[in-house]
């Protein structure tokens, strides 16, 4: 199986010099402190806690967040966000700390929210608990929730930002992308022959790639908020588009099924069964599709449509990543992987950058990105830092938490 390989990314994106590639402008700094204290160690613990939370999906649009309350070098409270509708990490950690939070430092992976959503603002909870300092890894890219730093400072709380910001970004790449672009990140999956066809001239398309590839691509659906296809694919192949069978009486929590196109869909199609929800969108506008999914809190979309829909997304420059499976099979004729999208000369080609490649049984997988995203650069820096640490050059924290005494009963899993 192929994984994202940050070796393909330079720190400053210099290797990615094609004219259509936006230079990566990182807004995050990896260290900042006001009193010389090094908060990286408690932040590492907060990051560990955050990683226990659910990733963003259709059922959980929220970011992963962890929080540690530190008093006199001792961890007195811990918490993390367990998913949409549950209390935020800061509140869980404050409850864990109880009275010990007064005068303590809250170390949190994401800027505390400053708005009332399904739960109250975390800024107010921190202020009410009497914490004297808040240490933050990543500023909240959500315009509705941001403003936490300002609110804390206005209330006289010291704020330290940028501690382990790369690591925090890596926890919430899809959330961050969506908040910054007001649309989900789009990954286009293709399974094609070596000569670039996705169906034969007579329309048959089962199967071009191997069983192993199909199993792998089926499993990867779970990481997405939605699977998007056009009516052409639904009418030709009658795909089910589910990530897993929820089982009798269980609610399906996999990706939303989305069918784009104006044609009537006959009842009885598998995508219209009641196992999972399906959104039918009678439009030809990819941007409108993504806006509707963004409004539903979906941060990452798997585009599994045919050549027509893929061309529409490419024409609008709305394909962020390609996950291609190429089988050692030739057809010589049939449906090409993508239809015309306006490139009439080589200079108009959509260029992508290879992020990784590898075997998928007898097939080859290639992952390519349209742009160098901040999280790709962050991944590279984190990898380099860990390599440095392994070689023994990164040690020494002002706050020695080695003799940390934990009080309380640990994180609350039932929130
Ligand atoms: N191997 C693979 O990876 C793979 C994946 C998917 C599909 N396929 C193959 O692809 C074939 C189907 O191709 P396809 O191109 O018809 O499928 P498609 O791209 O999934 O669906 C095409 C339909 O999407 C709608 N549509 C949405 N936005 C559009 C836009 N901007 N412009 C034009 N139409 C838009 C139109 O429906 P309305 O006419 O209803 O408005 C159009 O007919 C099948 O043979 C299938 O097996 C292969």
Overall description:
With 415 residues, this protein is α/β, with parallel strands linked by helices. The chain folds into 2 domains: 36-179, Cytidine Deaminase, domain 2; 182-386, Dihydrofolate Reductase, subunit A (3-Layer(aba) Sandwich), CATH 3.40.430.10. Helices cover 25% and strands 20% of the residues. It has 11 helices and 15 strands. It has helices at residues 40-50, 89-97, 122-129, 148-154, 165-171, 173-181, 211-220, 231-237, 286-295, 307-315, 374-390, and strands at 66-71, 74-80, 105-110, 133-138, 158-161, 185-193, 197-199, 226-230, 256-260, 278-281, 300-303, 321-327, 335-336, 353-360, 363-369. The strands form 3 sheets. Strands 10-9-8-11-6-12-15-14 form an 8-stranded mixed beta sheet. Strands 2-1-3-4-5 form a 5-stranded mixed beta sheet, with helices on both faces. Strand 14 (353-360) and strand 15 form a beta hairpin. Helix 3 (122-129) packs parallel to helix 4 (148-154) and helix 5 (165-171) packs across helix 11 (374-390). The chain starts with 39 loop residues before the first helix and ends in a 25-residue tail after the last helix. The relative contact order is 0.17. Residues 10-34 and 394-415 have low confidence and may be disordered. The structure holds NADP nicotinamide-adenine-dinucleotide phosphate. Residues 190-191, 198-199, 203, 205, 208, 229-233, 236-237, 260-263, 284, 304-309, 312, 335 line the site of NADP nicotinamide-adenine-dinucleotide phosphate. One of its GO terms (molecular function) is zinc ion binding. Converts 2,5-diamino-6-(ribosylamino)-4(3h)-pyrimidinone 5'-phosphate into 5-amino-6-(ribosylamino)-2,4(1h,3h)-pyrimidinedione 5'-phosphate. Its EC number is 1.1.1.193, 3.5.4.26. Pathway: Cofactor biosynthesis; riboflavin biosynthesis; 5-amino-6-(D-ribitylamino)uracil from GTP: step 2/4; Cofactor biosynthesis; riboflavin biosynthesis; 5-amino-6-(D-ribitylamino)uracil from GTP: step 3/4. In the C-terminal section; belongs to the HTP reductase family.
């Amino acid at each position: 199986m192929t994984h994202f390989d940050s070796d393909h990314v330079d720190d400053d994106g210099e290797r990615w010099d094609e004219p259509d590639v936006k230079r990566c402008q990182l807004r995050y700094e990896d260290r900042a402190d006001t009193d010389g204290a090094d908060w990286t160690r408690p932040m590492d613990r907060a990051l560990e806690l955050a990683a226990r939370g659910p990733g963003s999906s259709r059922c959980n649009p929220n970011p992963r967040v962890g929080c540690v309350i530190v008093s006199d070098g001792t961890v007195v409270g811990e918490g993390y966000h367990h998913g949409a509708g549950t209390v935020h990490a800061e509140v869980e950690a404050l409850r864990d700390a109880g009275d010990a939070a007064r005068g303590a430092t809250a170390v949190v992976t994401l800027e505390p929210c400053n708005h009332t959503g399904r739960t109250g603002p975390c800024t107010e909870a921190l202020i009410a608990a009497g914490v004297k300092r808040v240490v933050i890894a990543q500023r909240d890219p959500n315009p509705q929730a941001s403003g936490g730093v300002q609110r804390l400072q206005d209330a006289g709380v010291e704020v330290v930002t940028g501690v382990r910001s790369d690591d925090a970004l890596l926890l919430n790449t899809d959330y961050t992308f969506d908040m910054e672009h007001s649309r989900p990140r789009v990954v286009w999956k293709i399974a094609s022959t070596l000569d670039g066809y996705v169906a034969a001239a007579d329309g048959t398309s089962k199967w071009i790639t191997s069983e192993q590839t199909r199993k792998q691509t089926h499993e990867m659906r779970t990481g997405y908020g939605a699977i998007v296809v056009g009516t052409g694919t639904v009418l030709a192949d009658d795909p089910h588009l589910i990530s897993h069978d929820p089982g009798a009486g269980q609610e399906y929590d996999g990706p939303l099924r989305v069918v784009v196109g104006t044609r009537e869909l006959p009842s009885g199609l598998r995508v219209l069964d009641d196992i999972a929800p399906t959104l039918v969108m009678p439009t030809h506008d990819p941007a409108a599709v993504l806006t509707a999914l963004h409004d539903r809190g979906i941060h990452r979309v798997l585009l599994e449509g045919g050549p027509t829909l893929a061309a529409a997304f490419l024409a609008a420059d709305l394909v962020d990543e390609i996950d291609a499976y190429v089988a050692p099979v030739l057809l010589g004729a049939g449906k090409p992987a993508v239809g015309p999208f306006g490139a009439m000369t080589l200079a108009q080609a959509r260029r992508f950058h290879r992020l990784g490649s590898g075997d998928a049984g007898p097939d080859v997988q290639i992952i390519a990105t349209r742009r160098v995203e901040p999280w790709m650069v962050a991944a590279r820096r984190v990898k380099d830092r860990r390599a440095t640490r392994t070689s023994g050059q990164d040690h020494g924290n002002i706050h020695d938490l080695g003799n940390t005494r934990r009080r309380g009963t640990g994180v609350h899993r039932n929130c």
